[in-house]
Specification:
Blueprint lengths: L2 E5 L4 H13 L2 E8 L5 H15 L3 E6 L2 H5 L28 H16 L3 E3 L15 H14 L7 E3 L7 H11 L21 H13 L11
Parallel strand pairs: 1-2, 1-4, 2-3, 4-5
Helix pairs in contact: 1-6, 6-7
């Protein structure tokens, strides 16, 4: 039996990854982690709505506010300004240090308990902000860590179904799979109405336009 754990942030990429997992897996288990990010309230509400849509066997929420306490990211440090666009070409301030490794560690622990053989994560390398923990080489290396650091009774794969897709391609795939985009959230700034100005909102709006679809969520500015 194929058992999947899906890391569901509530964002567009994780939603479409959940849709792929729902198509390809016999059992779904959803995991959401709040780490003190600015929009954690809205992201949690999105996660709950996505759970209502897909009805996973189990859904768990972890609260890790220590990632916000150590700082290092404009997503968790409210004294830093979130840039509308990163002009330097370097890793942007919205990068949360080694976040994906932390998320995967939690998912792997749960996978060992459940006997799950796959962990889905909605990372994007090709059309993302250049985060170092969103690269193919990182995920393949992490699989080696899992292989050597677990009992490995059930080999665990790290599945990255949207890793090499553009944002527009992700929207198209989600549409084909009937993903409920109205329940997803991408804004880095607001818990109420998407700002339409932060880099994440801009990438999302551009993706829907290029894909030829209308984004079902509301924006303060477009």
């Amino acid at each position: 039996m194929s058992k999947a754990i899906v890391l569901v942030s509530g964002g567009l990429d994780s939603l479409v990854s959940a849709a792929v997992a729902a198509r390809d897996s016999e059992e779904l288990n959803f995991l959401h982690i709040s780490y003190g990010q600015r929009t954690q309230k809205k992201e949690l509400a999105s996660f709950e709505a996505i759970c209502q849509h897909y009805h996973p066997k189990r859904a768990e929420v972890i609260n890790w506010d220590w990632l916000s306490r150590i700082g290092g990211s404009s997503l968790t440090d409210f004294e830093q300004e979130i840039p509308a666009q990163d002009p330097t070409g370097e890793v942007p301030s919205t990068y949360v240090p080694f976040r994906n490794a932390n998320l995967l560690c939690a998912a792997v622990s749960w996978a060992e308990v459940l006997g799950a053989n796959s962990i889905y994560i909605g990372a994007v390398e090709e059309d993302s902000s250049g985060y170092p923990d969103c690269r193919e080489v990182f995920f393949r290396a992490f699989e080696k860590v899992v292989e050597t650091g677990t009992k490995n009774l059930v080999p665990i794969r790290i599945v990255t179904p949207v890793l090499h897709l553009s944002k527009a391609e992700i929207v198209k795939l989600g549409m084909e799979l009937g993903a409920p985009f109205e329940h997803s959230w991408s804004c880095y700034v607001s818990n109420e109405e998407a700002c339409g100005e932060c880099e994440s909102c801009r990438l999302r709006l551009k993706a829907f336009t290029q894909a030829g679809h209308s984004d079902p969520i509301k924006y303060r500015n477009k």
